[in-house]
Amino acid sequence: MKSFPWRYESDAPASTAVNAHSYAAAGSLFLWFPTSPPMVLAAELLRANSLQVTPSRSCLQVRFGPRALEDCLLLLGAGLGEAEARRARALVVLGGEPPALDDFGRITSLHELHVAVQTDWLLGQFKLGGITSHFHPIVHTGDTSHVFAHEALLRGRGRDGLPLQPLAILQRAREAGLFQELDLAACCCAIRESAHLASDVTVFVNFSPAMMDDAERSLKATVAAIDAAGLAPQRFVFEVIEADRIEDTDHLDRVLDCYRRDGFRVALDDLGAGYSTLNLVHRLRPDFIKLDRELIKDVHLDRVKDLIASKLLEIGHGLGIRTIVEGVEQPEELEWARKRGADFVQGFLIARPGPSTRPVPRA
User: Fold this and answer.
1) What is the pTM of this model?
2) How far is it, in rounded angstroms, from Cα 327 to Cα 307?
3) Contact 53, 47 (CB under 8 A)
4) For the chain, which has fewer Cβ within 10 Å, the N-terminal or C-terminal residue?
5) Can you give the three-state secondary structure of 48-106, one letter per residue?
6) Which helix (H) or strand (E) holds 186?
7) What are the residue boundaries of the structural domains of the chain, listed by start?
8) Which residue in 179, 240, 251, 170 sits closest to 210, CA to CA?
9) CATH of domain 131-355
10) Spatial separation of the C-alpha atoms in residues 193 and 270, rounded to whole Å
11) Which range, 75-84, 188-197, 337-346, is most confident?
12) What is the percent of the chain with per-residue pLDDT over 90, rounded to a whole number?
């Protein structure tokens, strides 16, 4: 796990050495701003929340009490906005001592500290069950009441209790350098939650480029989660997402071969979204391909989309790959998928994602 800029172990005095329990300590936050307006705004925000602020020409010193650092960083990040938080420099020093010379090597942006606090909280929510998985059914094209599989989707709520957008969760983790940890936690969460599903359905779990950074660890954690849930690896399909971000396709091929040797199957997502994804079909030979939802939107009204999507289905069938048309939201799109011979469909027309303990609505 990445060490946050205010979290490090050293031989420095206790007032400046910061460990994983730093949120519980008191200390000072030093802020430097390139211009005066954001500095004035930050001071106003902090004073309005009863924090002690000492300004100088270009720096604010903010004294915070025990367990107040998180709230302080969240307040500043939200109040100043991302652009100003990126420009502001920040340094956290615990205790009552002024910063030492060595401390200045830990100066970072206020934005990074803000993102780190948010992501650290998110990881804690995984352990507490506050962030979980919902499941989106994948059904047989000819009979949409017959569920073939469920795709696990990340869901959760923020500190304010409002729903969090999955992309926002992952973006925060990526900026904080914790994407791999969050991605693996989401994978294990999806496996744990899938134990509540019917025993005869397949489960699709997203496989992002982050899982390639430490593939052996990711695979071991995945197998351990499946064993703990008492499930069979053959029920799981790892769905390669964000394939356009994967530069080393040879490495991806080797990693997925390891997953296959352990009994998992592989799907390739967003086929038709770009050449790089299409190029992976013959390299990876996945068990499933999913046609990109943007390609399917109004496919029955667009001759070009119709031609491209039809050819992709033809390629899949020719290679013995089972095909999934996702993003189906209109009856005409479902009818198109049936006429073109797609094996499975997925989309809001059929059902919306829901928790594993809730009955899945039928079209």
Assistant:
1) 0.73
2) 17
3) yes
4) N
5) HCCCEEEECCCEEEEEECCCCHHHHHHHHHHHHCHHHHHHCEEEEEECCCCCCHHHHHH
6) helix 179-194
7) 22-120, 131-355
8) 179
9) 3.20.20.450
10) 25
11) 337-346
12) 53
